Amino acid sequence: MTNTRFRVHGVPTATLERIRRTGRDAADQAVESVVAGGGEPLRCCLRDAEQGEELVLFGYAPPVAAGPYREIGPVFAHAAACSGPDGTGGHPPAWRGRPQVLRAYDRKGRICGGRLHDGTDPETVIAELFADASVCQLHSRNVVYGCFMFAVQRVAE
Is pLDDT at 74 greater than 50 in this prediction? Predict the structure, then answer.
């Protein structure tokens, strides 16, 4: 599968700018400043942090319609603006090979499927989930902690 049918994104730039400016997260809680130990998954640039990087830890509500399936969970991002993801819009290269759960959502924001994958061929799993016309977006989730990693949006052909 090519990247022409889907686009991957982390926490939107506007959301990151607001969080950095206000110091408040999606639950109106104070953002925590953290010095990276190394390996923290960064939702701003979709790679793991290197030891010593200045980060923020905050509660984030991934993009789904308001309702019972909308949740707030912890995510890391750079404390200051960074260059963002690699720009291809495809699966994050730094996270290829990382086992993940892809959770499928419909237009009402309800979970309508999902799949555990080993990370070696995420495009195939994404294509299989998007084969269901009711799926409008996917969320990649950390297998152990369940945290939001990134969203996958269907792109009109």
Answer: yes
| 69: nearest Cα among 110, 32, 20, 126 | 110
d(CA 138, CA 121): 16
| Residues facing residue 47 across a β-bridge | 42
The first and second tokens of residue 108, run together, are 């009402």
pTM: 0.91
CA-based angle 15:126:39, to the nearest 5? 55
Distance of CA 82 to the CA centre of its chain: 16
| Mean pLDDT, the chain, whole residue set | 91
Angle at 92 between CA 40 and CA 94, to 5 degrees: 55
| C-alpha radius of gyration, the chain, whole number | 15
